[in-house]
Amino acid sequence: MTASDSFSHETVFADLRLAAMKREREPSSKAYRQDRFENTERAAKETIEAEQRARREKTKRLKELRLAQQSGQNPATK
After folding, report:
1. Can you tell me the mean pLDDT for 40-58?
2. 16: left (phi > 0), else alpha (psi -120 to 50), else beta?
3. I want to staple 75 with a disulfide (CB 3.0 to 4.6 A). Which of 5, 16, 37, 68 is the partner?
4. Is pLDDT at 56 greater than 90 in this prediction?
5. How far are the Cα atoms of 40, 44, 56, 77 from residue 69, in angstroms, in the given order?
6. C-alpha angle with apex 3: 21 to 5, nearest 5 degrees?
7. Read out DSSP for 6-39?
8. In angstroms, what CA-CA distances link 50 with 36, 37, 62, 74?
9. The whole model's pTM is what?
């Protein structure tokens, strides 16, 4: 058996890497990435909406407090 008849380690590892790369491109993997992307998008949207709600509520509380102080009322007794 000559050197050209046997497989080198580099060839075997290159074939394994190529197979792994092809596996990542299968439809199930693509579906997983799509689901993960959609979940990330949904989480980001929910976080933004929660932050906006919190800002609106804080603004509303501060406005009520300001109005109460201007009218001489104690907001704690409301």
Report:
1. 96
2. alpha
3. 68
4. yes
5. 43, 37, 20, 12
6. 70
7. SPPHHHHHHHHHHHHHHHHTSHHHHHHHHHHHHH
8. 21, 20, 18, 29
9. 0.49
